[in-house]
Amino acid sequence: MNLSRLIYFLLGASNRIRLPTPSVLPIAGAVVGLYSGLAAGIFSNLIGVMSGITFSAAELAAALKPQRLRTLMESLSSARWHLEYALVGVPLALGALLLARIIEPGGPRDEVKRRLRLLALLTLGGLSLYYPLVGLAAINAVFGHAHNLPAALPHLPWWLVLLAPTLGGLAVGRLLRDRPETHGHGLPEVVRAVKSGANVVPADRGLLKLIASAITIGSGGSAGREGPIVYGGAAFASSVGRVLGFSRRELSILLACGAGAGISASFNAPIAGAVFAMEIILREFELRVFSPIILASVAGTLVSRGVLDEAPMLNRVNYELVSGAEVFAYAALGIGCGLLAFAFVKMLHGVEHFFQGRGGGRLSPWLGKKPLPVRAALGGLCTGVLVFLSPTVWGSGHDFINLAAAGQLPFIFLVTACVLKLLATSITIGSGGSGGTFFPAAVIGAMAGGAFGTLVHYFFPLATGPSGAYAIVGMGGAVAALTRGPLTGMMMLYELSGSHDIILPLMVTCTIASALCHYLIERTSTKVVSDEDLLTGTQVRTLMTQVAAVPAGTPLRALTDQLLTSEVGTLPVLDTLGNLYGTVQVEQLRDVWRDESMYPLLVASDLARKLPALAPDTDLAHALQMMDQEDVDALPVAPVLGLAPCGLLTRSSVRRFLFAQHTRSNGEHAVAPTEVTH
Fold this sequence. Notes:
It is a multi-pass membrane protein. The chain has three domains: 25-62 and 82-102 and 111-147 and 179-308, Clc chloride channel; 325-525, Clc chloride channel; 535-666, Roll (CBS-domain). It is globular, with a radius of gyration of 28 Å. The protein contains 29 helices and six strands. It has helices at residues 2-14, 21-56, 60-63, 66-77, 84-102, 109-142, 149-152, 158-176, 187-196, 203-218, 226-243, 248-267, 270-282, 287-307, 326-355, 363-368, 372-387, 401-405, 411-430, 438-459, 467-483, 486-497, 503-524, 531-536, 540-543, 556-565, 604-607, 620-630, 651-666; strands spanning 545-546, 570-574, 580-585, 609-610, 634-637, 647-650. The strands form two sheets. The chain has a three-stranded antiparallel sheet. It is mainly α.
């Protein structure tokens, strides 16, 4: 009897469970971080496979020798399987599935059942991907797909150095030929999605970008890993958030979770990933965004440590600030990093315009007429030629960062690598290749910092540290300047270097570099009317749609017919006195339209939501602010003195208006695909 009462009590309690969005968002953030870490592992292993095809095609027979097979078994046994993930995740997911099955359907409980089921299935799916990826990483390590680039590249035949990037560019161009929205390095698209409020990054584009970027980098194209991972993580977050029914604000936080977890997984730097998500994607530091973003970064890092190399990107270098006067040298380095980042951005735009036929002379128009695969292949060929001048051009080039940090690269090599890496990355991405700019910017900054440190230490040996310290700080300065995110540059290099003493030079260099690059870009960019000016200078009457309001007593069946045939799926509702009351949306019919017994009982006023009405002369900025406060996508517009019909202003109409204005003034996208702008 007591057991029956307990079971009855538990069943009753399960039907009273609520999953409000504030409690679901951190869990969803952790799940998104899990998949961002998996995406980083998949991406890295794809690059390894492509690199292995390039470097080890002639050694496949040797790979099957018994000694190599024994090494494979040892690698698999020593891999970081982390079985505790399954021991914790599987029972939790199965428990959530069981609970979702026990809860009775109907009303708000359907939303609880759906969210529990989706989160549980995503957890099981993540675990099912994790362990095969660990095995693939072990296989890649044994069969030579993870190369020591500085040692392996000199042994590559000259014809393969030219052929591999060319074929890689040809393949990527063919893959992306019909998907121009996937070009570039991915980060601006995520920033634009969050800034516009759309928060939609299609998942299929994210997967396509990962594959294309893996081909580009693995075949020798000069690009980085982080952009595709950021884009892929945001794409997955966008899909999950929309399925879970999150609001626009919550979707933007979830997109930031995916992007930040991607950075955390790529650099093995969870703090830097969280700061990146808040500083660059959301551009805010509020308590409500902390928990989902931090959980996402932690989950992404934990997963990536299993499917990627757990060793830090930077070898630990002993560092100390030799004298207070050395701060002036780091300030000068910040100026240099800011100028380099500005040149990088301009070069990216210039090369992109040149390959699209918008440059001067005869060659640019000729290139513009060629299909994307041909342009990308020519860009790959140019990159292959530059490899003969500097090996840092090949791939992401981050293998040379540790050599610069240890002071093992000569001055001429550092200067040449800095210039050619900047040029090669611009050609690879601008010609149609796919990849990020974080890693190349870090390499450019390390080379520039190492060269600068060599000069400074030569002239002031007693008052300055070794060149390696300047190489590390130069990395942070270049990343901070390119993204205009000083905190991201500081925390990333502080976390990677593991040195507390380096934080002061990082603060000086990153701040100056970021401010200078931002100033130069704002000063030289084409002046266009900002979104704020457009919104404050445009009245609601300009964009509102005139619709006939429905009386409060409209029966449910007639109301359903009008809603389903309306253009925007929303209708204004009048109260019993004939005054504007609020709106009714087609989504509100979800819980009642199948129940025929409810049709005679309900009228429009039963479903309507009371909302403030906009005056026709209200500016769009105030209207959007009211939409955010009410968490709706449409607001009613009151008639003028009762002489005009009611109207509706929708968020989508405002978004189309802004896009049309920017397209008319710029002739192109508001955010260029090769620049991070805010």
